[in-house]
Design brief:
mainly alpha, 4 helices, 75 residues
């Protein structure tokens, strides 16, 4: 596991838990982490992480056009 050390300006009002959520949510969004891996990074359950994603307007569903076309053709 990697360790990351970062300095954040005092004017950024964010705690470690929120930073972990932001990082995990965005790594999940771009496909670098699975849902379970992202939840583990934050230290919460997958269900709780799925709820957290809603706060960042990140969907747990693959809503790409290719996915939608495939889904439509299989209906």
């Amino acid at each position: 596991m990697k360790t990351l050390t970062m300095q954040i300006p005092d004017l950024v009002d964010v705690d470690l838990y929120e930073l972990k959520n932001l990082l995990a949510a965005n790594l999940y969004r771009i496909g670098k982490l699975s849902l379970g891996q992202a939840a583990t990074l934050v230290g919460i359950s997958k269900r709780t992480f799925m709820e957290t994603l809603g706060h960042y307007n990140i969907s747990i569903f693959d809503d790409s056009i290719d996915f939608l076309e495939e889904d439509y053709s299989n209906a």
